[in-house]
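hiii so um. not sure if this is the right channel but i have a protein structure encoded as tokens and i wanna go backwards to a sequence. like what aa goes where. can anyone help
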């Protein structure tokens, strides 16, 4: 019985992130995407100009004013991307042959190609692999000198200009934020984005470097797409506000068969400490060109829900595909069906977490148990910072969960967090007044009716950040 209100209210707990591109950035398309179920709008700074992204941000905020629904914006930075230089037309490298790499600007051919990245040459060693063009070409270094290195071609094929290079065996001594990233970051923060995603994170020091710039202006999300990041995973998760399982580059640099296991591990570790986690890349890839997904894609999206992800993400499906609205609608239906299955078969979903020995986690855990025991219709949490929401979402309550906060930026940022709905509250120092405000909000949204019970979680003294320590059962 405790699960039915959420389903009856046609709400998903797992959030949907949609990437915005040229085909989906008009005001009408943005509104249609929001109506279809988008909770977070992702802007990919690897493509387009700052003017393009600024226009999208302005359009999203204008839509927010029209609908009265806070909109969450994620700015995804390009990160240190490595590419080969220009190559002659129709070059093909054969398996078993050798090719040299250097930093010269000369046009490359089948025996030599430019790689204008000195940091790669500083870290290179015999035996290291280079993957090119999303892993279609594979090389292994056999010899190094001061200004070049020679590699054997393990997997051959067409070698084309400006193709991306992945280095799965090397931790590069690079700044996590390139000059382009720094410029884009300054712009994104000036426009008031809610989350910033850092690409190609390798170690916790990358997060610390970004934190000195971003501070509390936006949530920091680490994209896990490098094997080196897996070696420092616990520290990285502890240092960020959220994590993205970026399966594109991760699936290039790792053997593909290892990606599902790492996805489960990353989701589990994030949920353990209450950090939102997004599963991304090729979730409904066929819908770039087709109006329906494959059965395997539906299973992939549902699998992320069963693992306990906070959000699932669409990339080219909504940024450049022919069916952006339909992609969101299908993803929403798949998520809702997976959540319905978990309601009926709890063992299919993420398991219970171990007890955390702190007052804040104890209040969150106990409030969820209390709400489900008394068959409350809604849980309400008052939070100035959003931390109370993180703790309660960690427990995966089976009933609707409403967060009341006086801060619009907190409302927006929580758009990424599993299960949360938000509402604005006044800066009140009186718990009784706050409860009255919550009851009015619940009635306005038709979340509960006369005679039904709600559970309210807050801090005493009320309104002070970081003091969540109280709960109350209220009968409407």
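sure thing!! here u go:
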């Amino acid at each position: 019985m405790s699960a039915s209100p959420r389903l009856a209210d046609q709400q998903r707990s797992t959030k949907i992130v949609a990437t915005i591109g040229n085909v989906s950035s008009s005001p009408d398309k943005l509104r249609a995407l929001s109506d279809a179920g988008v909770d977070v709008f992702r802007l990919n700074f690897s493509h387009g100009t700052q003017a393009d992204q600024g226009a999208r941000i302005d359009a999203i905020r204008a839509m927010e004013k029209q609908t009265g629904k806070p909109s969450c914006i994620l700015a995804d930075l390009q990160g240190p991307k490595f590419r080969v230089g220009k190559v002659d037309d129709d070059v093909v490298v054969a398996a078993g042959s050798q090719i040299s790499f250097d930093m010269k600007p000369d046009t490359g051919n089948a025996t030599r190609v430019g790689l204008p990245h000195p940091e790669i040459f500083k870290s290179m060693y015999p035996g290291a692999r280079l993957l090119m063009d999303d892993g279609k070409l594979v090389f292994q270094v056999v010899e190094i000198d001061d200004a070049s290195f020679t590699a054997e071609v393990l997997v051959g094929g067409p070698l084309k200009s400006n193709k991306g290079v992945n280095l799965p065996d090397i931790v590069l001594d690079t700044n996590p934020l390139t000059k382009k990233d720094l410029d884009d970051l300054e712009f994104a923060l000036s426009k008031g984005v809610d989350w910033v995603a850092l690409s190609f994170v390798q170690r916790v020091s990358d997060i610390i470097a970004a934190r000195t710039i971003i501070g509390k202006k936006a949530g920091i999300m680490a994209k896990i797409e490098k094997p080196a990041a897996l070696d420092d995973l616990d520290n990285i998760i502890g240092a960020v506000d959220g994590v993205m399982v970026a399966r594109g580059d991760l699936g290039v640099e790792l053997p593909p068969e290892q990606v599902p296991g790492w996805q489960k591990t990353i989701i589990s570790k994030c949920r353990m400490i209450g950090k939102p986690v997004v599963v991304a890349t090729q979730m409904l890839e066929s819908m770039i060109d087709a109006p329906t997904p494959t059965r395997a894609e539906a299973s992939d999206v549902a699998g992320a829900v069963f693992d306990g992800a906070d959000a699932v993400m669409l990339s080219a499906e909504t940024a450049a595909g022919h069916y952006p609205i339909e992609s969101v609608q299908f993803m929403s239906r798949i998520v809702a069906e997976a959540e319905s299955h978990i309601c009926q078969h709890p063992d299919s979903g993420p398991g219970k977490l171990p007890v955390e020995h702190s007052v804040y986690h104890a209040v969150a855990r106990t409030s969820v148990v209390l709400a489900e025991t008394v068959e409350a219709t809604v849980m309400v949490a008052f939070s100035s910072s959003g931390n109370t929401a993180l703790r309660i979402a960690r427990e995966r309550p089976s009933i609707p969960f409403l967060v009341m906060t006086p801060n619009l930026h907190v409302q927006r940022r929580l758009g990424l967090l599993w299960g949360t709905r938000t509402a604005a509250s006044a800066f009140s120092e009186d718990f009784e007044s706050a409860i009255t405000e919550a009851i009015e909000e619940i009635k306005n949204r038709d979340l509960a009716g006369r005679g039904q019970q709600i559970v309210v979680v807050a801090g005493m003294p009320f309104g002070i950040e970081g003091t969540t320590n109280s709960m109350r059962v209220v009968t409407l």
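oh and The first strand starts at residue 15 and ends at 19.
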